[in-house]
Amino acid sequence: MAPESLLAAVDLGSNSFRLEIGRIGSHLRIERVEYLKETVRQGNGLNGRQELTREAMERGWECLARFGERLTGFAGGQVRAVATQTLREARNRAEFVERGSELLGFPIEVISGEEEARLIYRGVASSLTPSQQRRLVIDIGGRSTEVIIGQQSQAQQVASFPIGSVSWSAQFFGDGVLSKSAFATAISAAKQRLAPARGAYPGTAWDCAYASSGTANAVADALSAQGLDGHLITPAKLRKLHGQLLEAGHVDKLRLPGLKEDRRPVVAGGISVMLAVMELLEVAELEVAQGALRQGALHDLLDHEPPADKEAAEVLALQQDFGVDQEQAARVSRVASGLWRSIRSAAAGGADTAQALHTAALLHEVGMRIALGDYHRHGAYITEHCSLATWEPMLRQRISQLVLGHQGKLRKLDTFIEEPDLALPLMALRLAVQLCHARRDPQLDGIALERSGAECRFSTPSGWSHAYPQSARLLELEAAAWSKTPWSLKLQLR
Asked: What is this structure's pTM?
């Protein structure tokens, strides 16, 4: 892989140092190539004089030397290294930064809390689908918490508070004891520190709320491991985890399912801060976002706004990456959309269904470059996992199902085939694929597709089956496939 096609971001956080390398893909997408994380715990290395201890600096330097080896060959404009709250506080940061920059091979920038918040928001926005909603983003790091409101990819209001999972764990749970009194004191102190956010971030200023980075991901993992929806964090779910920490009584006895070992010493502080900020801002639920500061830094390096039509750009990029016949894809999409409009119902006629059908038609052959046999299965995997920020989960699932079902037996979709909003667009897509089998515009004059309940009737004008015998044969096979489902396809081929 050519080094010039890569970008790298180094995030020197209070708990962990992270290196993310991304490739500039089609239409200026950034695709992850490599991600390295080391738990350095520099936030615990500040002494009473607010200086990093020699041991803390050595841990950081050793990590940066390893990162530096990986970044050999990168040019200056391809790498951004940023340090956050711990180095903002450290009186001897100049010594650490000078040696660290030498080992890394690139200058380390100690950024302000406001710049950290801006980059966090841009990183979170890069992982979300385009929307005009006003987004509240809360990021609880090791020694700072950022609160941001923004729209699209731009932060509009930012704030940074010197409070986080590492510092709060050290201050209120330093002896490892997880008691009611310690939690009550930690939450109360967090609310006092975050109090300016109450008036600055009222509920009327934002439409939806997200949580990002370490504490949010640790909470999500712990909830998911217990059979709860970790994608959404609520105060009630946090209180459940809080209760489990109290039951353990001590950090050394804490065995919370799903909690990674490096998070165990700092989870109490993180949960305390998250409970405080959710209660203070009256946030009913936080959706866990995958983007973070390092993704924001990568997008800053790219210095390019996301395309206005992110879905169109993603579809075109996938078509180009996987060698899709774009003319054929567009042809199938036109025919499928026309057929579906003739049989859709109120139950299966929404904009999301139309979007899923259109996108699936444009990408139905995306798996062919991997293997011609079972290419629809490869295509379903690609549409399910590529560029997660482009489609909402339910839409993504429907696109993947349509790609999977556009050829072959229908029993692979038995669980979903009874649903009109899958079955009807799928029938339209499969018919379009058969009608366009010769990779030219099919003769559709006089062709009709009608629906009555679970029965669909496909009719042709006189002489059509004689003029197009292969198409007629493919349609007969298609009708046989649908006869094994709750739906039927009746043919009137003349």
From this structure: 0.66
